[in-house]
Automatic annotation (TrEMBL), chain A:
This is DUF58 domain-containing protein. Residues 192-389 form the DUF58 domain. Pfam families: DUF58.
UniProtKB/TrEMBL annotation, chain B:
InterPro entries: DUF4350 (IPR025646). Keywords: Membrane, Transmembrane, Transmembrane helix. This is DUF4350 domain-containing protein. Residues 61-229 form the DUF4350 domain. The lineage of its organism: Bacteria, Bacillati, Actinomycetota, Actinomycetes, Streptosporangiales. Pfam families: DUF4350.
Length: 430, 398
C-alpha cells in the first residue's frame, strides 16, 4: 500500500474545517472522509497480486553496447490493471526507462522493453520489479514488489580486436603459402624443394639430394600446437587506473588479442587469473570456443586488494603444465612486488618455460617527467624520472633472467604483446 | 537513484564552463538566498512595527522628550506634592481620599497589581490604560476606535477640560461610555477623555499620553488640563510601574489556554497532514539498490606522492640526482655508448667528454650539469632542468 500527495493535500485542506466549525466531530468527520476515500481506493485499485512477470532478451552485452531485456507483465486477475512499474536494476546497469506506465487488461500480457547499457564489466542482476496501482480517487495505491530474476553479463569490450586482421596477416606471412620459408623462420620440418640461389646452404638435405639429380633443400615452418599459458594478475596492483581504465582491463584486452591470434596460429591457449587463489581458469578450449570462453571467464573479474602471491601462482602453474610452454604474465612492473615475489622464483619458471611479462606503462608518468616550469613540476619530473629508472632497472633484471618484457602504454599494450608473440614465433623460440 | 558515473558526465558535454558552473551554483543556492532575503525583510518590518518609545516613557523623573518630568515639576511648583511610586502596592499605601493617583504604563501592571488598585479611595487618572485595567477600574467604559485628530475641543461640562480649552491629543484611543460618565473631546460620539464616578473613586481615563510628555506639555492647554486633572485633590501619587519581575502575577494562563479550541484542532489536523505527506514521500517505488563500487586508485598515485614528499622535504639532492640520471639515460644511447654506462660512475669522464664534443660546450659546464653537486636553492634546481634539457636537445640535433 502507498499513499498519494492528493491525500496529504486533502488533509491539509481539511485543517480549515475545525477553524470554521471548532468541534471535535468536525475533525473526526474529516478523518472519516479521508479514511473512506483510502479504503475505496484500496478496494478498487488494480490487483497487483495477480501479476506474473516473465523475461526474455539479451544475457550478454559487450561493455559500452546496449542490451535489450523485455519484461512481460501478465495480468491473471479479473480486472484491468493500470499501474506505474519500475524494473529495478543496479545503478551500474544503467537501465532505462526508470519507470513506465503499464495498462494490462484482464488475462492479457504486455511487454515492457528495458535498455541496459552497463557502465562496468561483470554480472548485473535484476533486483526486483515494483508495481504501484493507484485507486480511482487517487488517494491511495496498492504496491507490490516481486522478483523477476534475470542476469545480464557485461563482457570486456575488447577494443584491440581492430588490430587482429593486421596481426593475422603477419602470421600468415610467417606460416602460410608464402615462398622461401627457410631455416630461421621456424624449426618444424615442412617439405623439400629445389635449391635456388640465396638459400642457406645449411638447409640442404644431402640425403634427398643424393637420391635426385638436383640439390634439394628442406623448408621449415613455425611450430604449431605450442602451448601458451596466460596469467592475469588480479592483485592490488591491477586495480590502479591508467587514465580512467583499471590496469586489469588493459591486461584483459591484451590477453584477448593474444588469445585470438595464438589460437588462429594453431597454438593451445590457456588462461589463469590469480591473486592469492585461482580466480578463474580457461583450459583446453578448442580454437573456436576459446574467445567466448575467455570473455565469459573474464567478465566477472574484479581486482582484489591483495598482494599478488607469486609463489602460489608459480606452484599452481608448475602443477598444471608439464610440457614447455610460453607463460605470459600480465602484471605491473612494481619494483617491490616483483623483486620480493616473482624474481626469486623466476629460475624455477624459466628452467622449464619461456616467460614473458607484459605490463602497462602509465602515460601520466611520461607527462610528469616532461613537466617543467615551476618547482612543483620539477619535483614531479624528478619523481617520474626516479620511477622510470626503477622500471628500467627492473626490466633489465628480468631480461637478465631470460624473461621477455613487453612494456607499453594502454593503447599499445595489446598490439605490442601480439608483436612480441609473433617475433618469438618467427624466431622459432616457442 | 542512478549514479551518474564521471565518464557519462563527460560524454554529455565535456568540462563544464565557468558560466555553467556559476549557473549551477546559483540554481542550487537561490532557494537559500531567497529565504535569507525574506528573513531580512521580515526582520526589518518587525523592527519598524515595534512600538517606539524608550523605557522611560511617561516617567515623572525623566527629562527626555517622551518623559514627564516637566508635568511633575509644575505640579510641585503649584503646591501639589508628587510622590512617585514604582509598584502598585507602594502606590496604594501612599494614596488616600485626598490624592489623585496617576497611572501610566499600565501594560506593566500584573493582574495582582490591578486587583490592588481596586482598593484606591481617592481619584484615579488612567493614561492610555490597557483593556484589563480599563475593565477593572473604569466600569462602563469600553474602548472604541483610534482617533488621529491632533487637536480637540472639550465639548463637555467637565470643568478641568473647559478651563483648559483646546488641547493637542495626537493619536488617541477613544472610549464608548454608558451611564453617568462625562465624556470630553469627542469624535463621532466617542470620547477621548472620560470621567466616571465609581463609589468613592473618581476615575478619569485619558486616551492619549501626548499631553503628558515633556515635548508636548507646553502646547495648547495641555498643561492646564493635566494640572486640573492631577491636582484636583491636593496631592498626587504617580504610579510609573517598573517592569514586573519574571513570573510575578503573570503566567496563570498558558498559551494553550489562550488559543481557541478550533485553532488547536487546526494544528492537530496540520500534524496529521504533515504525517500523511511524509508517508507519501517516504514510500519509494522500489528499494534503493546498493552496489559495490570498484576501487578507483590512480596508477601514478605513488609517483605523485613521492613528488610531494620531495617537495615537502626540499629533497633537492635526490631530485637533482633523478633528473640527471634520467637525462644521462637518454643522452648516452645518442652518443653511441652502451646503455649501462649511464649509471656507471667510471664512465663519467667519457660521457662528459663526448657530450662536450658534440655540443661544443665547456667540459666543466657539462660535467657540472650531468654530475655536479646538488643545487643550492629551488631556483638552482629549476635552472638545472633547463640546462639538462638544452644539453639533451643539442646532442640530439648535432
Amino acid at each position: 500500500m502507498a499513499l498519494t500527495g492528493r491525500l496529504g493535500l486533502l488533509a491539509l485542506l481539511g485543517a480549515l474545517v475545525p477553524i470554521l466549525v471548532p468541534r471535535w466531530w468536525a475533525l473526526l468527520a474529516v478523518w472519516g472522509v479521508l479514511l473512506l476515500g483510502v479504503l475505496v481506493d484500496l478496494a478498487l485499485a488494480g490487483n497487483v497480486r495477480a501479476l506474473r512477470f516473465h523475461r526474455s532478451g539479451d544475457t550478454n552485452v559487450r561493455l559500452g553496447e546496449t542490451a535489450q531485456v523485455a519484461l512481460i507483465v501478465e495480468n491473471l486477475g479479473r480486472r484491468r490493471l493500470k499501474a506505474r512499474l519500475r524494473d529495478v536494476w543496479p545503478p551500474s546497469a544503467a537501465a532505462a526507462p526508470r519507470t513506465v506506465q503499464v495498462d494490462v487488461p484482464a488475462g492479457e500480457r504486455r511487454r515492457v522493453d528495458m535498455a541496459l547499457t552497463p557502465t562496468r564489466r561483470g554480472d548485473r542482476r535484476a533486483v526486483t520489479v515494483v508495481v504501484r496501482s493507484v485507486g480511482p480517487l487517487g488517494l491511495a495505491a496498492r504496491q507490490l514488489s516481486r522478483s523477476a530474476p534475470w542476469t545480464v553479463r557485461a563482457l570486456p569490450a575488447f577494443p584491440s580486436r581492430r588490430h587482429l586482421p593486421a596481426k593475422l596477416a603477419r602470421l600468415r606471412e610467417l606460416t602460410g603459402a608464402h615462398i622461401a620459408l627457410i631455416r630461421g623462420q621456424g624449426t618444424e620440418f615442412d617439405s623439400l624443394r629445389e635449391y635456388v640461389d640465396g638459400d642457406d646452404v645449411r638447409s640442404i638435405d644431402w640425403r634427398a639430394t643424393a637420391r635426385r639429380a638436383d640439390v634439394v633443400v628442406r623448408t621449415w615452418r613455425p611450430e604449431r600446437d605450442r602451448r601458451i599459458y596466460m596469467v592475469l594478475d588480479t592483485g592490488r596492483t591491477s586495480a590502479g587506473r591508467v587514465g580512467d581504465i583499471p590496469r586489469l582491463d588493459c591486461s584483459m584486452d591484451a590477453a584477448l588479442l593474444l588469445g585470438a591470434l595464438a589460437s588462429r596460429a594453431g597454438d593451445r591457449v590457456d588462461l589463469l587469473a590469480y591473486d592469492r587463489r585461482v580466480r578463474t581458469r580457461v583450459e583446453g578450449a578448442s580454437r573456436t570456443d576459446l574467445l567466448p570462453a575467455m570473455v565469459h571467464a573474464m567478465a566477472p573479474l574484479e581486482p582484489e586488494l591483495l598482494e599478488f602471491d607469486a609463489a602460489g601462482m608459480v606452484s599452481t602453474l608448475m602443477a598444471r603444465v608439464r610440457q614447455r610452454c610460453l607463460v605470459v604474465l600480465l602484471t605491473e612492473l612494481n619494483t617491490a612486488a616483483i623483486e620480493e615475489g616473482l624474481l626469486p622464483l623466476l629460475p624455477l619458471l624459466t628452467a622449464r618455460h619461456l616467460v614473458m611479462i607484459a605490463a602497462v606503462t602509465d602515460p601520466r608518468i611520461g607527462e610528469m617527467a616532461d613537466g617543467r616550469g615551476d618547482l612543483a613540476a620539477v619535483y614531479d619530473a624528478a619523481a617520474a624520472e626516479r620511477a622510470r629508472a626503477e622500471r628500467r632497472r627492473l626490466t633489465a633484471e628480468l631480461r637478465k633472467h631470460g624473461v621477455e618484457v613487453v612494456d607499453a602504454p594502454p593503447q599499445e599494450i595489446a598490439p605490442a604483446l601480439a608483436d612480441a608473440y609473433l617475433a618469438l614465433k618467427a624466431a622459432g623460440r616457442l | 537513484m542512478v549514479i551518474q558515473s564521471p565518464a557519462r558526465a563527460q560524454e554529455a558535454g565535456g568540462e563544464p564552463s565557468a558560466r555553467q558552473v556559476a549557473g549551477r551554483r546559483w540554481r542550487s543556492a537561490r532557494g537559500v538566498v531567497a529565504a535569507l532575503l525574506a528573513m531580512a525583510v521580515i526582520a526589518v518590518i518587525l523592527a519598524a512595527l515595534r512600538p517606539s518609545g524608550s523605557p522611560e516613557r511617561l516617567d515623572p523623573t525623566s527629562p527626555k522628550k517622551d518623559g514627564s518630568r516637566a508635568l511633575a515639576e509644575i505640579l510641585k511648583q503649584h503646591g501639589t506634592p508628587v510622590t512617585v511610586a514604582r509598584h502598585a502596592a507602594q502606590a496604594v499605601d501612599q494614596s488616600g481620599s485626598g490624592t489623585v493617583m496617576v497611572v501610566t504604563r499600565s501594560e506593566r501592571l500584573t493582574q495582582d497589581d490591578i486587583d490592588r488598585l481596586r482598593g484606591v479611595q481617592g481619584g484615579l487618572l488612567l493614561v492610555e490604560p490597557t483593556t484589563p485595567v480599563l475593565e477593572a477600574l473604569a466600569p462602563g467604559v469600553r474602548t472604541g476606535n483610534i482617533s488621529f485628530a491632533n487637536t480637540a475641543d472639550p465639548q463637555c461640562s467637565l470643568q478641568a477640560a473647559t478651563l483648559a480649552g483646546t488641547v493637542t491629543l495626537g493619536e488617541s484611543q477613544t472610549y464608548e461610555t454608558s451611564g453617568n460618565a462625562v465624556s470630553c473631546y469627542q469624535v463621532d460620539r466617542e470620547a477621548r477623555l472620560v470621567q466616571v464616578q465609581d463609589g468613592p473613586r473618581t476615575v478619569t481615563v485619558l486616551g492619549s499620553s501626548t499631553p503628558l510628555t515633556n515635548q508636548h506639555l507646553a502646547e495648547e492647554g495641555n498643561a492646564a488640563l493635566l494640572m486640573n486633572l492631577a491636582g484636583a485633590r491636593g496631592s498626587v501619587v504617580w504610579l510609573a510601574p517598573d517592569v514586573p519581575a519574571k513570573g510575578a502575577g503573570a503566567g496563570q494562563e498558558s498559551l494553550t489556554d489562550l488559543l481557541p479550541f478550533g485553532v488547536k484542532l487546526f494544528f492537530l489536523e496540520l500534524v496529521i497532514a504533515v504525517i500523511l505527506v511524509a508517508l507519501w514521500r517516504g514510500r519509494r517505488l522500489g528499494p534503493v539498490v546498493a552496489e559495490a563500487l570498484p576501487v578507483a586508485v590512480r596508477s601514478a598515485e605513488t609517483v605523485e606522492g613521492r613528488a610531494r614528499l620531495y617537495r615537502a622535504s626540499r629533497a633537492r639532492d635526490r631530485a637533482a640526482d633523478a633528473l640527471r640520471s634520467g637525462a644521462r639515460e637518454r643522452i648516452v644511447p645518442l652518443l653511441g655508448l652502451p646503455r649501462t654506462s649511464a649509471q656507471d660512475p667510471a664512465a663519467a669522464r667519457e660521457i662528459v667528454a663526448a657530450v662536450a664534443r658534440r655540443t661544443a660546450q665547456d667540459e666543466a659546464y657539462v660535467g657540472a650539469a650531468l654530475y655536479g653537486p646538488e643545487p643550492v636553492d629551488d631556483a638552482g634546481l629549476i635552472a638545472l632542468t633547463s640546462v639538462l634539457d638544452d644539453l639533451e636537445r643539442q646532442v640530439r640535433q648535432s
